[in-house]
Amino acid sequence: MTGNLQKTDSTVTVDWQDGSTYVGEIKNGKPHGHGKYTWPDGDEYIGRWIHGARHGLGCHSRRNGFIYIGEFKKNLPDGEGFYVGPDGTCYSGKWVNGVQQGRGTLRDKKEGLLYFGDWFNGSPKLS
Predict the structure, then answer these.
(1) What is the pLDDT of residue 109?
(2) Is the CB of residue 92 less than 8 Å from the CB of residue 100?
(3) How far apart are alpha carbons 33 and 26 in whole angstroms?
(4) DSSP secondary structure letter of residue 1
(5) CA dist 119 to 5, 13, 65, Å?
(6) pLDDT tens for residues 34-63?
(7) Which pLDDT belongs to residue 50?
(8) SS3 at position 2
(9) If 0-12 CB within 10 Å is exposed, 13-18 middle and 19+ buried, where does residue 41 land?
(10) Burial class (CB in 10 A: 0-12, 13-18, 19+), 6
């Protein structure tokens, strides 16, 4: 971890030259425990970290309105999670390696329920 490091009690604040910041716990110079990372474009992640990777329960939000709340594994959504897209479409269900896989529900803010069932590799599994 390189950057301007400031330590207060059990958390650290790191500011990088590119404008990104991290506030939280570290271990061996990497985010580890609970922390908040903010990218230069304003996107942010608040949640659990293990050895520098998003891992465990967390929330990733983007300036365009996208938000994902759920489990992460090795920086990717993995496990149970929920997202709302910029257009209001939302998905709730199982994720594997960053894509919808397993049982899930897709809803549209105008039409309501669009699909409920099994997903494979990020798409509804039709038959």
Answers:
(1) 85
(2) no
(3) 7
(4) -
(5) 43, 39, 24
(6) 999 999 999 999 999 999 999 999 999 999
(7) 96
(8) coil
(9) exposed
(10) exposed
Q: Check the CA dihedral 73-58-94-124 and report its sign.
A: negative
Question: For 2-23, what is each residue's pLDDT tens digit?
Answer: 566 555 557 899 898 999 999 9
Determine the Cα–Cα distance for residues 66 and 112; give it in Å rounded to an integer.
Answer: 18
Quote the tokens at residue 77: 């959504």
pTM for the full model? 0.85
Helix (H), strand (E), coil (C) string for 31-72: EEEEEEEECCCCCEEEEEEECCEEEEEEEEECCCCCEEEEEE
Are 89 and 112 spatial neighbours (Cβ–Cβ below 8 Å)? no
Residue range 82-103, pLDDT digits in tens: 999 999 999 999 999 999 999 9
What's the chain's length in residues?
Answer: 127
